[in-house]
Design a protein that fits this description.
The protein folds into two domains: about 180 residues, 3-Layer(aba) Sandwich (Rossmann fold); about 90 residues, UDP-galactose 4-epimerase, domain 1 (Alpha-Beta Complex), CATH 3.90.25. Helices cover about 40% and strands about 20% of the residues. Helix 4 links the parallel strand 4 and strand 5. The radius of gyration is 19 Å and the shape is globular. Bound molecules: NADP nicotinamide-adenine-dinucleotide phosphate. NADP nicotinamide-adenine-dinucleotide phosphate binds next to strand 5 and strand 7.
């Protein structure tokens, strides 16, 4: 299959590219910079210049492909509404281009805001649709293309897709602990965070490309829910700093913007995904990855 991958130069995308090549696919990655072109070429993929605001570049990539994996996202937490609008427009262009072809359109989403407080499964629908909902309601928009002859599949990732080189939520939480001199958790710290290793997530995506049916939801979740206190304890132990409970009123001053996430109880299951795809997460869990030490090395090492 000739697969058009947006976000191919990103954290998850750069692990997906070798998975796809290994499985015998041809990969064309969307690249918005010379650095991304160089990275994709070095990885054995072909680069196609373009960006999320250049919808014609998305149309051209999808048109020339046998399937699309859409991972690019503007991670600008100061303008999530704008990022959501961009996402929605991109999904619409990709979906319209693939309509009537039965080609796959896999797109990134998350398990985090579906139903805090209980274990979310693949059967749970996103609670809201429309431009004002989280991520612009792009999951429902994209899954709707299953009715238009597109094999659309939602790739819902755990909020931490971890591994060596991670620059996402967990590395931010480590950074906050370092800055504050204490490793915090909210309240009792019993709120749970699901996690998945980056290489397990990449393998799941490659399997979903081949096997997931139209309109399906798959969960990139290797661990259902790790209590936040355990995460804070490992971080505190590695940084040799105290581990403290943070009162709900102090979340913003301790954690900044990431506190809105780290205090959430958002466990999620991937049992149905594992059964559907024959996928078994095999790489280290989050605490093991934290214990491995690379989250705590200076950036130059
Ligand atoms: N990592 C996680 O823990 C996690 C958890 C849940 C959901 N997700 C979702 O999974 C997807 C992939 O995440 P990730 O961790 O791989 O993100 P990432 O490392 O930030 O990579 C984002 C990718 O999007 C590209 N991109 C950003 N803005 C763009 C634009 N305007 N035009 C074209 N490309 C653009 C980046 O290109 P450059 O390489 O040029 O910067 C990069 O390739 C995202 O939708 C993310 O929200 C991730």
């Amino acid at each position: 299959m000739r697969v058009f991958v947006t976000g191919a130069s990103g954290w998850i995308g750069s692990a997906v590219v070798p998975e796809l090549l290994e499985a015998g696919h041809e990969v064309v990655g969307l690249a918005r910079s010379d650095e991304a072109v160089a990275a994709l070429t070095a990885a054995g993929a072909t680069a196609q210049r373009g960006n999320l605001d250049d919808l014609e570049s998305l149309r051209a990539g999808a048109e020339a492909s046998d399937g699309v994996i859409h991972l690019a996202f503007k991670h600008d937490f100061s303008d999530m509404a704008g990022a959501g609008r961009t996402e929605r427009a991109a999904i619409q262009m990709l979906g319209d281009t693939l309509a009537g072809s039965d080609r796959p359109l896999l797109f990134a989403s998350g398990v985090a805001l579906i139903a805090p407080g209980r274990v979310v499964t693949e059967r749970d629908a996103a609670p809201m649709s429309g431009p004002d909902s989280p991520r612009g309601g792009s999951e429902q928009l994209a899954l709707g293309y299953a009715e238009c002859g597109v094999r659309s599949v939602s790739l819902r990732f755990a909020p931490t897709v971890h591994g060596a080189g991670d620059h996402g939520f967990i590395s931010r939480i480590v950074g906050v602990a370092r800055e504050k001199g204490t490793s915090g958790y909210v309240g009792q710290g019993s709120n749970r965070w699901p996690a998945v290793h980056r290489l397990d997530a990449a393998h799941m995506i490659a399997l979903a490309l081949e096997k997931a049916p139209a309109g399906s939801v798959v969960h990139g979740v290797g661990e259902e829910g790790i209590p936040a206190r355990r995460i804070a304890e490992v971080i505190g132990s590695r940084l040799h700093i105290p581990v403290t409970s943070v009162a709900p009123d102090d979340i913003a001053s301790q954690f900044g913007w990431i506190g809105a996430f780290f205090g959430l109880d958002i466990p999620a299951s991937s049992t149905l995904t594992q059964e559907m795809l024959g996928w078994t997460p095999a790489h280290p869990g989050l605490l093991e990855d934290l214990e491995a030490g690379y989250y705590f090395r200076p950036a130059s090492q």
